[in-house]
Amino acid sequence: MSLAAPPRTRRRSRRTRALAVGAALLMAGAVATTGGSAVASPAAEASAGAGERSTAREAAALTGTAKLYRSLGDDITFTFDAHLAAEDTDDPSKATGTFRFSHYLNGEGATAEVEVEVDCLLTGGKVAVVSGVITKSDLEGAKGERVGVTVHDLGRKDRLGYSWASTGSPADQGPLPKCVSSAPFESVKAGTGDFRVLPWEPKL
Predict the structure, then answer these.
(1) CB 92 within 8 A of CB 141
(2) Does the pLDDT at position 19 exceed 50?
C-alpha cells in the first residue's frame, strides 16, 4: 500500500506550500522595512484607538431651547445647558452650566431677561429638575435669588414648569432649596425647539 497522495492532492499541496512561503516572505519584508516590528493596518489602528478615546457617559444633562405656547402671543423662551459629570453622579449639587429665560410681550421689549448659574440637576427618565442662582436680570430684586425649573422631554411636545408659578415672579417667591420646582404645566410651542434630558442612573 502506497502512502503517497494522489496526483491531484500533491499538486494542491505544492500550491498551498508556495502560498505559505510567499506570505512568509512578505511578512519578513515588512519586518525588515520597519526595523523589526510589523505594521498594523489603518483599520486595526482605528479599532484600537477607538477604545482609548472613549469617555465615560456624563451622569445627567438638560439641554436645548424652546418657546412656551401662549394664546395671547407672549414670547417666552427657555434655554438650558446644564450637566452633571460622571465623577459627580453621587452629588447632583455639583452640576454645572447655565440656563436663561426671557419674556417679551407683543414684541415691545423684555418684561424679563434672566441668566442663571446652575447649582443642582436631577433627572429621572425624561424629567429634569434644575436650579441655579440668578446672575443677571432686569427684574428688580431677582438677582441673587435661586430659581428652579422642571422639564418633561416628550420629543418636541415638551412641557415645562418653574418654581415661581404660584407667585408670578422669581423676585417674589422667597428662599428656595436646590433642585426644587413645580410640575411641568406649561407646553412648548410647536416648531420652536426641543429640550433634551439625559436620565440620571445613580447606584441605589
Answers:
(1) no
(2) no
Cell of 141: 430684586
Per-residue pLDDT tens over the stretch 20-37: 444 443 333 333 333 444
d(CA 116, CA 121): 13
Phi, psi of 23 (to 5 degrees): -65, -40
DSSP per-residue letters across the chain: ---SPPHHHHHHHHHHHHHHHHHHHHHHHHHHHTTSSPPPPHHHHHHHHHHHH--PPPSEEEEEEEEBP-TT--EEEEEEEEEE-GGGTT-GGG-EEEEEEEEESTTS-EEEEEEEEEEEEEEETTEEEEEEEEEEESSTTTTT-EEEEEEE--SSS-EEEETTTTTSSGGGS----TT------EEBPTTS-EEEEEPP----
Residue pair 159/69 in contact (Cβ under 8 Å)? The answer is no
What's the average model confidence in pLDDT over 169-193? 95
